[in-house]
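Researcher: Next entry in the queue.
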Amino acid sequence: MTDRERILASIRGETPDRLAWVPRLEFWYRGRRRRGLLPEPVRDLELHEVADRLGVGQYAVVPDFTVRADPSDMIDRALGIYNLDVLPYRATLENVDRVVTRRGCETIVEYHTPVGSIRTTAMMTDEMLDSGASISYVTEYAIREPRDFEVVGHIFDNVKVEPCFEGYVAKQRQVGDRGIVVAFTSGTACPIHHIMKDLMPVEQFFLAMHDHPSAVARLAERIEPFFAAIKGCAAESPAEVVLLGGNYDDAITYPPLFEKYFVPPLRAYADDLHARGKYLMTHTDGENRKLLPLYRDAAFDVADSVCPYPMTSCPLDELLDAFAGQTTIWGGIPSILLCRDSATDSDFRSFIDTLLARYGRATRFVLGVSDMVTADAEWDRLQYVSDRVAEMGA
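Model: Structure for this entry, 394 residues:
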């Protein structure tokens, strides 16, 4: 089987000829290449060639935000609005004037509308680039005081979304049988999640839910058409798998909040995709234990970037038991185990050997690294995993 066939078989609940092994290498590759620290065997290779040399599937789930046709494609990053070629849609702002200022590592965007103005700031430091980061950090959020809700509402009222599949199809051609290209819809699962993750600091969001609940609810209503449009584009795209939402944590997106605001839209979107013969993926890379029963209610098909103990409190067997028979796990290897400063060679090999002995023939499991292979991960440890996986398919 090809890696593409292995991944799709795992999502369908079938048993592939061997475990699909598809780590997210882009952070490791970017950070090491920038600092001239790529290992000798892959020093002159492009990322997809590195994956081929390592013997892994090509990761194409969360997009590489550094790959864009125009620098302006990430101007609205602090609004959670992106325009990358690989996305199945194009979003443009109408009836909004933007003034963009670049100052050192910062990008400052002023949005002027008929109902007022706001300003956002995002930064990308040398330290972030050295680590392989692909997306800037928001230092000044769109909503900082009550009057900003109306301005942000106007902006989302005036987002024009159009389907755009050319870049996605080109990425499919490039990846070929080495993996699947997931249609990335949004890193947030619903309008409330979008407000708390992208538009406000999380502490301020919870204060606003208490002090200004009607303003938060009204803004969520105004963001909903944007979500409906981008989800519609992804559903109509050629993708077999669509990603919506991520970065959950049972202390922040805590169970009552998740049950009220996250489960219904995830489940409804899963139902829509299933009716089209497609699958829903969401990015479950946080502390998941208290959310596991709600994940099943949400009915998504793939839990991407599942991170077990020791990076979270949940052992892998508990996660697999919770999802058994319904949801495919993509992940399973905590990123710190690939780093020599965090785990001894003996502990690393013991973890991998035990994992493969228990789950190497499991259905609904795609082996990956949670959340990504970091820039300080060791090449020989990646190669060890590849060799062990290959042995199981021999």
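Model: The longest helix spans residues 213-236.
Researcher: Noted, moving on.
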